[in-house]
Design goal:
Length: about 160
Amino acid sequence: MTEEQKQAYTRRITQANKTQLVTILYEMTADYMKDAAAAISASDGAEADRQIQHAQACVDQLIHGLDMKVEISNNLLQLYLYAKQELIRAVTDHDPQHFDNAGIVINGLHETYLQLEKMDDSAPEMENTQSVVAGMTYGQSGLNEAIANPDGNRGFKA
């Protein structure tokens, strides 16, 4: 994942509600799996392993976020464990087919959560974050983003 992608995810996370956070984790997992598959194709085993570990960490976050008091959480847990098992197989076999298997689960759930996002109008989880305004100015190469109140209090309330 490039630094620009990481910055974009960070920006989205600061403005996301609970449903959007789950969607972001699915997208990050898919990106890491894509990067791992590319590393395997380039015969870079060390980079593939690193990217798979990142994807596994995302799946772990999805697992830890489950509320096991809710009935559907058991089904989601089984899907996440299957995806994680396929990622582990990808580490041991260095076979891109395992990414396809995990991707079917992750992408299917991602599509579902995109639909749920449309129904969730709750406030962002993080409070006291910087506001990012896009589309207000244009530079030589495209759209610029501006941060509102860059010197303001971020994250800590004094």
